[in-house]
Amino acid sequence: MVNGERVRQARELRKLTQTELATRCLVEQAAIARIESGDLKPSDALVQAISEHMGFPVEFFHQPTGPDFPLGSLLFRAHLSTTLRERAEAYRYAQITYEIADTLAARMKPSVLRLPQGLDQAPADAAGITRSQLGLSPDTPVPNLLRVVETAGVLVLALPVDLEGRDAFSSWAGLDHKQPVIFLSANRPGDRVRWNIAHEVAHLVLHPTIKGQLALVERQADEFAAEFLMPEAAMRRELAPPITLDRVARLKPRWRVAVQSLVRRAHELEIISKRQYTYLFEQIGARGWRTHEPDHLAVPVEKPRALRKMAELIYGDPVNHQRMAKDMKMAPSFVKRLLDSHADKAEYVGSVPPGRSSRVVPIRPSRGHLRSV
Asked: Which residues are CB-contacts of 213 (< 8 A; sequence separation ≥ 6)?
């Protein structure tokens, strides 16, 4: 029996309307609508056509609907220019990647989640509490933020598509909503990835459910991220006057944030005046740094590891994509694309801050926690 929700999932993932899919399959739009609603049992030939145009094996459309999760901060991160079709694409990629992680995680053992949830403090105070619970010092840089977040039990998943306007989003997922998940879009600079991670950690910590105006919620997440990545005490120590653009730029490799973020932080903390802030941003613009900061200051791109690590444990290293795809009822090329967006062993070597464990700690969605792997 074809599962209509699976047809819709694949269609939205491919950014197709019902009419567009119907045209490719040489049927009326109403037929696709009825299949997705469960009112029409398609012929074997039509299922085969849908399979070929969607790039998923026929078996994919016969399986039950996978685990669901709330939109979470996707509501916040979607820009006004983002269409419903683009938002659906992001959600469906996240849904199917999460399903793979959920399937793999079912074969792992529990471990402890250390990320706080629902803190009722000011964003800056919540950032300090979160740093403490993650075992970080209160006022030093975080060399490998993604690594810290993963070892705290957050499942971080990279999506193999460039989701414009949706750099990242997050949710407390699972049947009991105790699984923190962050989804990262592909092809972002290292400093931007780190800011996105900190921003989404803020949503997980401060906003487990949607409350209040979205603009206020986003501003709170920005305040949290700024304090988490650039603690006030450290910034007052390291951004001592006189502040020049070159002096600020020298701090970027150490703090692994954008030069623009450091300048903005100096202004927020009133280390520099509005006039100085404007002047520094004029210099940033004159040097062409608004869209691309100097390559010699580039921050290494951090990639999540947990999903690929679980796949390696179950399907070998290198991963047997054919066997994994058969189990997942997906195309080997699709599974490979998802895994290639995550770090392999070589990319993860040396990514652990001194004195910390080298373990990856994903969480088993909706059925408890995973052991370190």
From this structure: none
Q: Which stretch of DSSP H or E encloses residue 18?
A: helix 18-25
What tokens appear for 35 in the block? 């299949």
Residues 6+ apart with CB under 8 A from 136: 142, 148
Residue 362 preceded by cis peptide, ω within 30: no
Tell whether omega for the bond before 365 is within 30 degrees of 0, i.e. cis: no
370 DSSP assignment: P
31 vs 234: CA distance, rounded Å: 62
Q: Which residues contact 185 (CB under 8 A, 6 or more apart)?
A: 159, 161, 162, 163, 166, 167, 168
Residues in a beta bridge with 158 = 184
Listing DSSP states for 275-329 in one string gives HHHHHHHHHHHHTTTTT---GGGPPPPP---HHHHHHHHHHTTTT-HHHHHHHHT
Over its length of 373 residues, how does the chain's per-residue pLDDT go in tens digits? 999 999 999 999 999 999 999 999 999 999 999 999 999 999 999 999 999 999 999 999 999 999 877 888 887 655 555 788 888 898 999 999 999 999 999 998 766 899 998 899 999 999 999 999 999 999 999 999 999 999 999 999 999 888 777 789 999 988 788 899 999 988 899 999 999 999 999 999 999 876 778 889 999 999 999 999 999 999 999 998 889 999 999 999 999 999 999 999 999 999 999 999 999 999 999 999 999 999 999 999 999 999 999 999 999 999 999 999 999 999 999 999 999 999 998 887 544 443 444 444 444 543 433 333 3
Domains and CATH numbers, the chain: 4-65 (1.10.260.40), 68-231+301-373 (no CATH)
d(CA 98, CA 180): 11
Cα(124)–Cα(49) distance, integer angstroms:
54
CA angle 370/93/86 to nearest 5° reads 145
